[in-house]
Amino acid sequence: LELTPWDISPPEQPDGRPSDDAAREQIERALRDGSHTFAWHHRRLDGEVFPAEVSLSRVELDGEVTILATIEDVSARVEADAAVRDKALLIESLLDAAPTPVFYKDADGVYLGCNAAFEAFLGRPRDEIIGLTAYDIAPGELAQLFGTNRSSRYRLERLATHASGSELVVLVEAESSFYAQVAGRYRWTVDVTLTL
């Protein structure tokens, strides 16, 4: 039984390209570069389509150049990745629905994310906040307090300027705690309640 890669693939790949054209291109790349790994959709003999990771290697057998293919079914990985994305989207939606400004930072005090209320309070979009530190966005004492990289609990009442320009008394009650070790560095969340 001789089958070509496109015989065991759906007519088109997820990007809309015909499988036969895309397969020929992948094979040519492996022949040129010696090896090539890529995402692909294959079709089982019963017709079911599944996501796969394909590794192609150029090999020489009895003086003839051929391609060795390894196909790994990555359905479980794709489903797990989708579940993680869905969960992250749910958490982001819940945070954005909260009226209280919320943010989270890494162990170096760099903002990794925040909610819509924190964006509104600072008057900056999220993409301008992420990557900054408290020293980039808050005045002196507040920046020093929020810039600490230790587990702590604190309560602070200060005058702050809202994005609208009005001055407000802000009561900050915060607790930071380590939650995981990632790539050798601790990261934490900070729960912040701002009473305006």
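^ that was protein a. below is b, sequence first then the tokens
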Amino acid sequence: EMDIFRNGELIGYNYYFFKRKGEETIITNQINFSVKILGAIIFRVEGYGEEKYLKDQLISYESKTLQNDNAKFVNLVFNKNKKKYYIKGSSYTGEASLNNIIGNWWSHKILQADSQVSPISGSIKEQVVTFIGKETIEQYGQTYEVDHFKLISKDMSLPKDKRLDFNIWLDKKNSMIIRVSYSRMGNWEYRLKNFE
């Protein structure tokens, strides 16, 4: 359970639910937030996604997102014969290497990947992850010893609204991302509130 803040104000949530059955793991994701200025909603996102894994192999991902009434989607399937993913998304359709990871904040593996698939549109983004240092952060009455990373686009000439540029704090002891921050039309933070 992650809370989403913009400029210090709570504006929504990003929930992840995990279900295991034998060797299959299903992660469902719900996201909902809206930005208001003078009481009027200027930006709204509502979405749902589902990742399916067999052992550690991603076998499918599907999402539907409404972003200011614009429908975005991703349908990704693992092609066992070609050893590739096939993606049909609102921003990209085609094949992708198995080295890609879905760009969701539940998995610390995003910090080990060279590229990610946008969980909203299916676009593929190459990334560079740099270790910044060890820190202690407090959040919701808990103190965490974390590793701070910077995740950026490999190609920094991309338009700013398409570029990856995140600070990520990882609790290595639990292999969980505790906080993510970035600046785009304000200062945003995703903060881990609760986990079971």
